[in-house]
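can u do me a favor
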């Protein structure tokens, strides 16, 4: 009997052990599922949770000010920080994720489920997400670098989670966007390799992941305007960047050099970008760095070569765009002389002298008719481009064709019809009777009338 009892106790112990083991396994499986389920959420408990009031985006004056948290830190992370992060690096590559409503909805549904499980307010969650994205695109001062403070102070261990979820909001990516993201996340411990792995996890093709550095941190030649900082499929952004961050600064440098002004020391870049509505909704740090590097490159470039290149590239834009590029070039400078204005006018000689004077006035310069009478470009070794150096003349009375074309603010590739049209415009503009109210201006106009008639006669002889 005792043996039977001992056997029963042994069997019971075994069964109890099996039951305990099963319970342990069950607990482990549940824990694994919980970890798996919550792998896309920041660690740590919510803070400052408000349950008595439903907070909406309208209760915030600025959703991008992450210091202000009215619900809880997790809500701010999911509904404000991550959407703004995604918008921030995408707009650097001229990608508008607002058009991808499907991705935004999927993200909003996923986040609402997470918040609901933690008993965090889910009302207005989608509104927070959409409005945070909109504000990131509309606020020119917003940079994804401003997200770093929130991540490093509230969720220092979760940069990977933030990037994973932000990449989930994107569909199309390019090198400029990936590079911008990697630069920001590098400050909190994520490398380019980390970003690449997370991008592949998020469904981006390995062949599409390319970290194209902006020109200011690369070996790309700034004055090779065939090279673009963003993918050609984003043609609007590419052309805008080319015009405002590279062509206009290069032209401004060339004009400033003619006035013996060093644009590297006194350029007006911040004001230049501030007044450019077309780029207001895009991040300015790459634009400004590229502009600065373009200016530095232009100072070391042969002037004749640069002039020839700019004539070719700027000529590919519409008249309205060319006018804007020339205007922006003047806005960047602080000192110009008549030769500078003659150069600038050669790029937009479809304008009358009066129209060009108005354009200069809008850019901060006041021109008088006398500026057209200033010395033109000096000697040239080429019939196709001005010589910006002080060459020696064998005959002091001889003037190159470029000199006479300069009297009409025409480029070296001008046709005879353009000369005739420019002569007609300038004769009308500088007619002395137009300046009867000012003796000095009338005298300048008479002198200019003589010069342009001499230039016209000389070009007629040469019949360019």
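np, heres the sequence
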């Amino acid at each position: 009997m005792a043996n039977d009892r001992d056997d029963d106790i042994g069997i019971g112990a075994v069964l109890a052990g099996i039951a305990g083991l099963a319970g342990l396994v069950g607990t482990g499986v549940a824990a694994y599922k919980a970890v798996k389920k919550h792998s896309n959420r920041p660690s740590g408990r919510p803070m400052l949770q408000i349950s008595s009031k439903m907070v909406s985006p309208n209760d915030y004056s600025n959703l991008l000010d992450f210091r202000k948290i009215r619900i809880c830190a997790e809500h701010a992370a999911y509904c404000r920080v991550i959407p703004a992060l995604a918008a921030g690096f995408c707009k650097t590559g001229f990608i508008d994720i607002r058009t991808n409503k499907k991705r935004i909805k999927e993200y909003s549904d996923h986040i609402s489920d997470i918040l609901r499980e933690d008993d965090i307010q889910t009302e207005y969650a989608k509104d927070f997400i959409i409005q945070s994205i909109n504000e990131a695109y509309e606020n020119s001062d917003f940079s994804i670098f401003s997200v770093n403070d929130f991540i490093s102070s509230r969720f220092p261990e979760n940069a990977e989670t933030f990037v994973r979820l932000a990449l989930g909001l994107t569909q199309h990516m390019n090198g400029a966007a990936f590079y911008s993201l990697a630069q920001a996340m590098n400050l909190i411990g994520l490398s380019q390799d980390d970003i690449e792995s997370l991008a592949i996890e998020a469904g981006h093709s390995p062949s599409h992941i390319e970290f194209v550095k902006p020109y200011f941190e690369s070996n790309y030649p700034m004055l090779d305007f065939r090279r673009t900082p963003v993918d050609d499929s984003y043609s609007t952004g590419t052309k805008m960047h080319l015009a405002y961050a590279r062509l206009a600064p290069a032209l401004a440098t060339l004009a400033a050099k003619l006035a013996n002004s060093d644009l590297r020391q006194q350029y007006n870049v911040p004001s230049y970008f501030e007044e450019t509505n077309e780029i207001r909704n895009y991040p300015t740090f790459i634009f400004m760095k590229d502009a600065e590097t373009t200016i530095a490159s232009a100072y070391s470039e042969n002037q004749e070569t640069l002039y020839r290149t700019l004539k070719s590239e700027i000529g590919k834009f519409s008249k309205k765009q060319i006018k804007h590029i020339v205007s922006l070039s003047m806005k960047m400078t602080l000192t110009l002389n008549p030769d500078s204005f003659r150069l600038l006018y050669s790029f937009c000689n479809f304008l009358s002298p009066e129209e060009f004077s108005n354009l200069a006035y809008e850019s901060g310069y006041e021109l008088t008719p006398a500026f057209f009478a200033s010395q033109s470009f000096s000697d040239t070794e080429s019939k196709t481009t001005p010589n910006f150096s002080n060459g020696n003349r064998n005959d002091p009375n001889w003037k190159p064709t470029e000199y006479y074309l300069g009297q009409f603010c025409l480029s070296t590739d001008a046709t005879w019809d353009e000369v005739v049209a420019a002569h007609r415009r300038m004769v009308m503009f500088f007619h002395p009777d137009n300046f009867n109210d000012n003796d000095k201006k009338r005298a300048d106009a008479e002198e200019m009338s003589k010069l342009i008639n001499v230039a016209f006669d000389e070009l007629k002889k040469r019949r360019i």
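The radius of gyration is 33 Å. hope that helps!!
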